[in-house]
Amino acid sequence: MTASSCLLEPFRNQPSRTEVRNCILKLFSYFGELQRRAKRERTSFPEEDLPRLWILATSASDNLLESFGAKLELKNWLQGVYFLNESFLFL
Fold first, then answer.
1. Which string of DSSP letters, residue by residue, matches 31-57?
2. Rounded distance between C-alpha atoms, residue 72 and residue 41, angstroms
3. Of the candidates 51, 48, 57, the residue with the CA atom closest to the CA atom of residue 20
4. CB atoms < 10 A from the CB of 12, how many?
5. What gap in Å lies between CA 79 and CA 18, rounded to an integer?
6. What are 5-11's contacts with CB under 8 Å, separation 24+?
7. 82 and 62 in contact (C-beta within 8 Å)?
8. Tell me, what DSSP letter sits at residue 70?
9. pLDDT score at 2
10. Of 11, 50, 62, 90, which has the fewest Cβ atoms less than 10 A away?
């Protein structure tokens, strides 16, 4: 999970939609910061090096998961680990 750089957002209870959106906003803001730094330093920053967002919560309703299009990947992960579409992760 933390083999590469990541942002961890822990929640004691189920996060609201607004809280999830705020987590995604932080991720995109950080992407922008990394890209601006690379541009200033005249280096490249490959998409595969962008950090991943992990939202850790004790629960998440089906309604919340469906509203963000969260999907299980049971081939590689255990029950309870959901992923958003790839475009949310790497732009």
1. HHHHHHHHHHTT----GGGSPEEEEEE
2. 38
3. 57
4. 8
5. 24
6. 5/49, 5/50, 5/51, 5/52, 6/51, 6/52, 6/53, 6/54, 7/51, 7/52, 7/53, 7/54, 8/54, 8/56, 9/53, 9/54, 9/55, 9/56, 10/56, 10/57, 11/55, 11/56, 11/57, 11/58
7. no
8. -
9. 53
10. 62
**Whole-angstrom distance, CA of residue 41 vs CA of residue 16:** 38
Q: What is the pLDDT of residue 88?
A: 64
Question: What tokens were used for 20?
Answer: 């999830």
pLDDT in tens, the chain (91 residues): 556 788 999 999 999 999 999 999 999 999 999 999 999 999 988 888 888 899 999 999 999 999 999 999 999 999 999 998 876 654 3
